[in-house]
Amino acid sequence: MSELDAIVSELAEGERRWAATSLAERAALLRRVHAGVGAEAEAWVRTASLIKRLPEKSPLVGEEWISGPYPVLTSLEALARTLEVIASGRGPLDGARFTQAPGGRVSVPVLPLTAHERLLLHGFSAEVWMPPHVDADTVRRRAGLGALHPERTAGVGLVLGAGNITSIAPLDVLYELIAHNRVVVLKLNPVMDDMLPVLEHALAPLIEHGALRVVSGGSDVGGYLAHHPRIANVHITGSLTTHDVIAFGPGEEGRARKAAGTPILRKPITSELGGVSPVIVVPGAWSDSDLRFQAEHIATQRLHNSGHNCIATQMVVVSSDWPQRRAFLDAMREALTKTPGRPVWYSGGTDRLEHAAACYPQAERHGPDGSRVLIDLDSGPSADILQTTEYFSPVLGVQTLPGTGADFLERAVEMANRDLMGTLGAGIIIDPSTRRRLGRTFDEAVAALRYGTIAINAWTAVGFLTATAPWGAFPGHTVDDAQSGIGVVHNALLIDAPERTVVRGPFRPFPRSVAGGEFAFFPKPPWFVTARSAAATGRRLTRFARKPSWARMPAVFASAFRA
User: Fold this and answer.
1) Mean pLDDT of 370-381
2) Mean pLDDT over residues 192-209, rounded?
3) 300-320: per-residue pLDDT in tens?
4) CA 325, CA 369: separation in Å to the nearest integer?
5) What is the CA 414 to chain-centroid distance, rounded?
């Protein structure tokens, strides 16, 4: 492991250089990385598609554009702007118009913030809710995190990269560098080893500056670095099992240490660990088009990346008193069946899928090869296994609760908070007229959900893709009860100690959105697994993020409206 020791020593020297790097210089460095990511975008997506065994011409390649180089480009731009603002003597939230959220919470708008965002994501918005009773002046004053004192560096951090989404590792690196003021050794997940040359080229300015090193290897490499005496902090995106092995050690001894609350890791650890994410379908009077669209919406939330997402929806909560319940479940079955076939590519995915099917005899098989499992929990064995096991594969459960309106919503929120493992993200689907009828009761239900990102008529992944939105579990988890993780990432406005992100989107795509009274000109989203033009739209979005220009927008829209 002498090579790893040398890398850590180099980064310790790089920390001194990072401490001497001004905010303006850091912003310029991020813009150089932005150029590098843009130059590597084609190779990035090509490599990711090969890892995931996607045909070159498949529309599903659009996922690799939109979840790969695109969010890294937007994050780099947003972080550079924030650093430039702080360097000028202002705060990242100066001029922001805060509002009030339920429970005495300050709400900070984070999407849209630019004219480009207002047009590209027309009808979508996001806000950050602070913990109750944190006043607006405190929120403004504390925004900036490590960038408020760039000379006060925090050592060498280890980022253990995710194996499923190619943007996660570089985004985690950027947050360590800017928010926590730590130089970084990034250890790639072995699944992503082929991304090593792409990332080294894309992130070359950071490597040359001495702020980053990228390494590959197995669990022995990750374990050695995590416990290295000169590593100050560990950040992991992965499973709760891997987190616990790092924190407490493997096997029976590790489980005993966890039970006793005696970790072997003697340094802070932050994490994003997934969970069992719900989407609550509030009953209303929906058209056939509404049923089909929202069924495809939920299918996307489970089948994107073949279900290998920490934020994939695993539990659909519906009402037994909804007259359209059966029609909606039939629409979901159709969506699961007609979505283009793809391999269950992530290690162990097929075994986990088969485990779910074996646990529930009523499990239905859908898709070209039967690799999509739908489990209606209205009958059969207890829901416990599906509620507490993150399957990380194309497994979707349906839980039915009684009630309508506010009564159903209250029951669904209570069930999600009480029974489902994890707190990373939750969705609510509700038509505009039902939303208006519920009034403040709906806002209070959103406040009662204990999740780090809550998406209303949108997938929580929109929060992940929003550079200025914090991404992470609901606060309060600890090393011995990490659930969906500790801390946040992304958060390009560098907001201190946020509670949650709330994303809102249109219930219907354009033009039905406008016909139904929603001021939203967004077509079927390009991240839908049924979007036929997703690959072209993803490429054009990335080109736009590489070099934003009003002249590039018509091509993006022309492709998006062919979805």
Assistant:
1) 92
2) 98
3) 999 999 999 999 999 999 999
4) 26
5) 23
DSSP sequence for 297-325: HHHHHHHGGGG--TT-EEEEEEETT-TTH
Quick one: average pLDDT of 240-257?
95
Cα dihedral across residues 73, 78, 79, 84: positive or negative: positive
What DSSP assignment string belongs to 415-431?
HHHHHSS--SEEEEE--
- Are 36 and 205 a contacting pair, CB within 8 Å? yes
Over 90: is that where the pLDDT of 165 sits? yes
Question: Cβ–Cβ contacts within 10 Å for residue 471, how many?
Answer: 29
For residues 273-282, b (16+ Cβ closer than 10 Å) or e, as one string?
A: bbbbbbbbbb
Task: Return the structure tokens found at 484.
Answer: 């969906």
User: Using CA atoms, how far apart are residues 280 and 430, in angstroms rounded to an integer?
Assistant: 9
Give every CB contact of residue 49 below 8 A, 6+ residues apart in sequence. Answer: 56, 58, 61, 64
Task: Report yes or no: 314 and 302 within 8 Å, Cβ to Cβ.
Answer: yes
DSSP state, residue 380: S
Q: Could you report the per-residue pLDDT of 259-316, keeping only the tens digit for each?
A: 999 999 999 999 999 999 999 999 999 999 999 999 999 999 999 999 999 999 999 9
∠ Cα 126 44 195 (to 5°) = 105
* pLDDT band at residue 380 under the 50/70/90 scheme: confident
Q: What is the pLDDT of residues 485-512, one digit of tens each?
A: 999 999 999 999 999 999 999 999 999 9
Band of pLDDT at residue 563, cut at 50, 70 and 90: confident
**Neighbour-count burial of 490, counting CB atoms closer than 10 A to its CB (0-12 exposed, 13-18 middle, 19+ buried):** buried
d(C-alpha 221, C-alpha 231), whole Å: 13
Give the integer Cα–Cα distance in Å for 71 and 175. 13
DSSP calls for 122-152: TT-EEEEEPPTT--HHHHHHHTTGGGGSTTS
Query: Which residue is associated with the tokens 């990490």?
Result: 482
Half-sphere exposure for 313 (CA within 13 Å, toward CB): 31
Q: Which two tokens stand for residue 466?
A: 């929003």
CB 478 within 8 Å of CB 449 = no
Task: Copy the structure tokens of residue 125.
Answer: 């918005």
Torsion, Cα of 428, 431, 435, 441 (10° steps): -40
Query: Angle at Cα 313 formed by Cα 399 and Cα 369, nearest 5°?
Result: 90
Instruction: Enumerate the H helices of 381-475 as residue ranges.
Output: 384-388, 405-419, 432-438, 440-448, 461-465
Averaged pLDDT of the chain = 97
Burial class (CB in 10 A: 0-12, 13-18, 19+), 454: buried
